[in-house]
Amino acid sequence: MNSVSHCDTPLLRVAYLDGGPQDGAPVILLHGWPDDATTYARISPVLHQAGFRTFSPWLRGFGPTSFLSKEIMRSGEIAAMAQDVLDFADALGLSRFAVVGHDWGARISYLLASVFPDRIKCCAALSLGWQPGKPATPAPGQAKAFWYQWFMATARGAEFVRNNGKEFARYQWDSWGPSGWFDDAIFDGVASSFENPDWADVTLHSYRVRWEEAEPDPAMPNSPAGKQRSRSSRCRS
Length: 237
Hints:
By secondary structure, the chain is an alpha/beta fold. It is built from 9 helices and 8 strands.
């Protein structure tokens, strides 16, 4: 794995992997849940060979990415994470960029492309279709598939996630793909990102607020991605 770089944005110290030609067209690669920035480890070299410059951050609550203050809400709202991406891009000096997202990253990518077309050159979203607005109550079949989201909306489910995060994440990996699609070493490498002290809070809030079982992020009052923050941002390798 490439060495980890860091960017300070208004709210976060973002950890990320980057590579490719310095003058290549920029692409921000966004991971999902429960996953981390290394999900693009096999894809990035192909993009680099094609002339793209890639940046793959750990989302808030994952891996080495950290909040700059204890006072910042550990929000898991997609809008908050979309604003994180804009702040990250600003810190990198990227006025316009392509975005690729998987799962949570797909939701973030859709929001960015629809609300900030002046910033997003193109968007590739993986695993999820575009679902604008509040989600409708699903039919029983889909509700059954969403069991883990309902589980996290309960006090006992939240307690389990806080105390057994890796076990909970491993069950999703085992359930969401064919047998043998990964091995223990791959999972353990990614699961180290779930040791972030804010992972459980961000995870629980993201799924709870989606179904209106948690209070929304007060920093996101007026637009799908909130007001762009103006405090200084900086990066370092």
